[in-house]
Write a structure and sequence with these properties.
With about 150 residues, this protein is mainly alpha-helical. The longest helix has 27 residues.
Length: about 150
């Protein structure tokens, strides 16, 4: 039973990602992965690459490549970290903020269309609670303190 649930969870994630990624690429000109990176940086206002990696649960190398791609696209800039001159801080450009806002509207609309057609608001709420429990359990299992601290307690 657990294996079947895992398979369903993975496939639903892939299907949902593909639906939303296609729409956000078409309507905002960025991938869903780029959107997620922009969102993390905006949520923190300024961020270091290692914080992006922690928040997205990806490697530092992957986060660095993401930052490079966003910088080349003119969506973010790197500034020297005033507190630690060995590192840089990532900040969205005005263009990056505009792209993020456009992409956020697309992502929200696609997710509402996808979920609203499939499950009730109560089921969605319960699913959210269950997924947060699973993420918290995974964070404990992999001992990622930053991931644990970002999860709601509910």
């Amino acid at each position: 039973m657990v294996e079947s649930i895992f398979a369903d969870l993975v496939r639903v994630e892939i299907q949902t990602w593909n639906v939303v990624d296609t729409a956000v690429r078409r309507e905002a000109g960025v991938s869903l992965g780029d959107y997620e990176g922009l969102k993390v940086i905006e949520d923190r206002r300024t961020s270091r690459v290692n914080q992006v990696a922690e928040d997205l649960v990806i490697t530092v190398g992957g986060a660095s490549k993401l930052a490079d791609r966003l910088e080349r696209a003119g969506l973010l800039i790197r500034r020297q970290n005033a507190e630690d001159r060995r590192s840089s801080v990532l900040e969205l450009t005005d263009h990056g903020t505009a792209v993020l806002n456009r992409a956020a509207r697309v992502v929200s609309a696609e997710l509402h269309r996808y979920f609203d057609a499939s499950i009730t608001a109560e089921e969605l709420h319960k699913l959210g609670l269950t997924l947060r429990k699973l993420r918290k359990s995974a964070a404990v299992a992999t001992e990622t303190p930053s991931a644990k601290s970002k999860l709601p307690t509910n």
